[in-house]
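Inverse folding, one chain.
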C-alpha cells in the first residue's frame, strides 16, 4: 500500500510539473503578444484586460492537461508525454487563434490588451482561448 501511495505521489508530482511548465510557456506566449511586460501590466498597473487574457490562457491549458491525464489510462509514460504534447499543441493553436483574431478584427489586439480601460475585444479573445482549450481537450482520445 505504501509503495502504491509513493508511486502515485511521484506521478502526481510529475504531472504537476508538466502542467506548471506548460502554464509558464502560456504566460510567456501571452507576454510576447502584449506590448510591455505582462508582470507589470497585471501586478503593478492592475490591467484587467491583460489579466483576463492570461487567466483564459491558463484555464485553456489546464483543461487540456486535465483531459490528457484522465485519458492516459494509468500509463504513466503515455500520460506525461501526452500531457506535454497536447499542452504544447494547444498553446500553439491558441497563439494561432489569437493571431487570426488579430488579423480579422480592426486595430491591434496587443494594443487593446494594454489599454487601462476594459475592452470587449479582450472577452472575445478570452473565449477563443477557452474554446480552443476545450476543442483540443475533446480531440484527445
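Residues assigned per position:
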Amino acid at each position: 500500500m505504501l509503495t502504491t501511495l509513493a508511486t502515485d505521489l511521484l506521478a502526481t508530482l510529475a504531472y504537476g510539473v508538466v502542467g506548471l511548465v506548460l502554464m509558464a510557456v502560456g504566460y510567456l506566449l501571452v507576454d510576447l503578444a502584449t506590448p510591455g511586460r505582462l508582470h507589470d501590466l497585471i501586478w503593478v498597473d492592475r490591467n484587467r484586460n491583460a489579466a483576463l487574457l492570461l487567466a483564459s490562457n491558463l484555464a485553456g491549458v489546464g483543461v487540456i492537461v486535465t483531459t490528457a491525464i484522465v485519458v492516459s489510462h494509468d500509463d504513466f509514460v503515455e500520460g506525461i508525454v501526452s500531457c506535454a504534447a497536447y499542452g504544447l499543441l494547444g498553446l500553439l493553436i491558441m497563439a494561432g487563434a489569437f493571431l487570426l483574431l488579430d488579423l480579422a478584427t480592426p486595430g491591434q489586439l496587443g494594443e487593446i490588451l494594454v489599454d487601462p480601460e476594459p475592452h470587449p475585444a479582450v472577452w472575445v479573445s478570452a473565449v477563443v482561448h477557452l474554446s480552443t482549450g476545450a476543442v483540443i481537450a475533446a480531440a484527445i482520445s
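The chain has a mean pLDDT of 87. Helices lie at 2-33, 38-44, 48-70, 76-104, 109-114, 120-139.
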